[in-house]
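Allow me, if you will, to draw on your knowledge of protein folds for a short while. Thank you for your consideration; the sequence and its tokens are set out here:
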Amino acid sequence: MRSARELVERELTKELEAIESALAYVSGVGGNARQVFYRSPDLTLLKVCFPAGRRTPPHDHGTWATILVLSGEEKNTLYRKEDGTLRKAGEATLTRGSILTMRADTVHVAECLSDRPAIGLHVYGGDIFELPRHMWNPETLEEHALDWTLYEQFAKVASSAAAAPMA
């Protein structure tokens, strides 16, 4: 995880325009399999695009993550699990060139704060489409295994709420 962050900081933050240009062909919103541009058992590289007003439900990645924001403004509300329940651990607001690193046990909510989409390069320490992952109902904070159909329903609920859950 540390070496991924160091590489992103040392090399990629210098090349934001080139990265944006290289990823321009990757369409779609959210962070789904259609936005993957590299995938292996040990590493996934994903372009994530959150439109204005989009908020995710609380979720984990099943592995460490490093996020580099390319455009827009993205707020992350971070949680930790304590005795089987979520507890808010902090917040991080990211703008162009900002980096956020999360441990495998981190749960977060991501939301676009800007009028234009928040677009980021996400680097994960495994195949996040195969790893066991979890999500939480944004209203009840009940934990569920990740299911993309239910995730999108939860995202609609989360996006219509005034803020991320304050567990």
